[in-house]
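Why show two proteins at once? Because comparison is the fastest way to build intuition. When a single record is shown, students tend to memorize it. When two are placed side by side, the eye starts asking what differs. So, the first record is below.
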Amino acid sequence: MQENASGERLEVAAAVLALLADRTRLALLQRLGEGEADVTTLTEACGAARPSVSQHLAKLRLAGLVVTRKDGRRVVYSLRHGHLRRLVDEALNVADHQIGALPPHD
């Protein structure tokens, strides 16, 4: 891989991780990892105010991490790809190890 392409890859990865570094966005992505959902469902799942949830979803959509589709008058959100679900799951697994003082493993 060319050095320039590698640099771009690292830059994009850092931007994705920066978006995940917010508790509300992480909760939204965790819920979307279970399947698509509308704003009402996502608001209930993450416990944040609806305007805040909408703003976070807009950031995730603009970053290309979530996609939307219309279902009547509702907008339904889903993860763009499974890699993101696995990334969120792994971040939460690391947290489980930190909280529970679990031994490291390969």
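Second record. Ask yourself what differs from the first in the token line.
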Amino acid sequence: MEKALKGVPVMEPTVPPGVVNVGGEWFYEEYARNAGVASLGMENAGAEVPRPDGPAPEERGRILDLFRN
């Protein structure tokens, strides 16, 4: 690229409206300075997540048979 861009002036991109730089990071203005999402509604994140029951034993056997030689 050194040869291809020789003599071409360096262009700094223009910042789009509504985008700000905070501490070296780029943000949309409405999310800058800790104004982003405050909560995901997962206050009970430590609670046990119910898992669906696995397949019935007969179906599990048929599935495993697909992988046997």
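One difference worth noting in the second protein: The chain has one helix and two strands.
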